Amino acid sequence: MPSKKANGEGSVQKYYKDGVLKGWRTTITIGRDDTGKLVRKQFYGKTKLDAIKKKDEYMNKSAAGLLPCDEKITLQEWIKIWLYEYRINDLRPSSLAAYNSLYKNYILNSQIGMRKLKDLKSTNIQAYYNTLVKDKHKTPNTIKSINKMLKPAINQAVKENYIIINPCNNVILPKITNKKEIQIFTLEEEEKFLKSIQDHRNKALFILVLGTGLRIGEVVALKWSDIDFENNELKIQRTFKRVSKINIENPAENKTAIIEQEPKTKSSKRTIPVPLNIMEELKKHKKRQIEEKLKSGDIYVNNDLVFPNELGEPTDTRNLTRSYERALKKAKIDYRNFHALRHTYATRLFEADVPLKTVQELLGHADISTTANIYTHVLPKQKIKAVNRINHLFAL
């Protein structure tokens, strides 16, 4: 007489479909539902051994606490949970908006987004990344950004037992080979630019960025209370950024707003000395701003901003960029982005033999290697200068 199976061990039997033998099936009891009815789970295989093996794997995972919490949840469903429940309070608004954009453009309804999380493999993600690069012509930086979101999201899923291992761990990202050379103004171009903006409404703003290297979000968020006219310096304490509004129910919605947020890193919060001539220009700018305020009357909003729009509200960086581009055309200078003003500031510092560490602190970079990597075009010249200074010691 066969021995009785232990509770949950299961039975193995052949199974048929339309009278045709299809393979083997094993059934186990995994508990009871809310009504007290037994809940059974079945495992199928082409052979008896295959069916038993699948059942044993399930039971081993169950004993180790490694079973998915929800076997039907898809990657896109999990990313939505991770983004809007786990990370919504600790991510900077701009980072949340960036992740939301990646989610709706590359995960939602994509070939990997609709795949069940428990079935997601490295090969699936690798194939998707390869398709984005080869067929969609997406850049290595875009792939890196997608993976930067996916990896921590799936790490959380591993902790929650939705999936056993993180498939992102074994993905090979495309190499970033064509690093763009930074754009700067030559001394001649800088002089032409400064001459052409003498009557420009944003004259003081452009000059300040050229003389301090502020980022565009930092300069439009600058307040008069941040400027110390007595000690000729200013403090960076906030930044403005236009971000997508988050609609959890409809992630595809595309509305934006200007928000104030903390600078990107602790190093970005900094005090910067300002050249005396630029401080004088700021004083003139303040007088012009008072006149502008009087003309606007009651509709002017006093936000204490140094560079607001005509009504005192935060300047939209898109409008500022367009204003800058028109100034370039007027000066007959080839296009280069707004960030070129910041790069030009750093380049002039290196040309004046300012140490790398000092330049790093003035720019607000968290890591000195960031500064060194960006300004590789300048540093070799500084090395040559340094060597030439000791050349006379070797005159024989």
UniProtKB/TrEMBL annotation:
<dbReference type="Pfam" id="PF00589">
    <property type="entry name" value="Phage_integrase"/>
</dbReference>
<dbReference type="InterPro" id="IPR011010">
    <property type="entry name" value="DNA_brk_join_enz"/>
</dbReference>
<feature type="domain" description="Tyr recombinase">
    <location>
        <begin position="180"/>
        <end position="388"/>
    </location>
</feature>
<keyword id="KW-0233">DNA recombination</keyword>
<dbReference type="GO" id="GO:0006310">
    <property type="term" value="P:DNA recombination"/>
</dbReference>
<dbReference type="InterPro" id="IPR044068">
    <property type="entry name" value="CB"/>
</dbReference>
<dbReference type="InterPro" id="IPR004107">
    <property type="entry name" value="Integrase_SAM-like_N"/>
</dbReference>
<dbReference type="InterPro" id="IPR010998">
    <property type="entry name" value="Integrase_recombinase_N"/>
</dbReference>
<protein>
    <submittedName>
        <fullName>Transposase from transposon Tn916</fullName>
    </submittedName>
</protein>
<dbReference type="GO" id="GO:0003677">
    <property type="term" value="F:DNA binding"/>
</dbReference>
<keyword id="KW-0238">DNA-binding</keyword>
<feature type="domain" description="Core-binding (CB)">
    <location>
        <begin position="73"/>
        <end position="158"/>
    </location>
</feature>
<comment type="function">
    <text>Site-specific tyrosine recombinase, which acts by catalyzing the cutting and rejoining of the recombining DNA molecules.</text>
</comment>
<dbReference type="InterPro" id="IPR013762">
    <property type="entry name" value="Integrase-like_cat_sf"/>
</dbReference>
<dbReference type="GO" id="GO:0015074">
    <property type="term" value="P:DNA integration"/>
</dbReference>
<comment type="similarity">
    <text>Belongs to the 'phage' integrase family.</text>
</comment>
<dbReference type="Pfam" id="PF14659">
    <property type="entry name" value="Phage_int_SAM_3"/>
</dbReference>
<dbReference type="InterPro" id="IPR050090">
    <property type="entry name" value="Tyrosine_recombinase_XerCD"/>
</dbReference>
<keyword id="KW-0229">DNA integration</keyword>
<dbReference type="InterPro" id="IPR002104">
    <property type="entry name" value="Integrase_catalytic"/>
</dbReference>
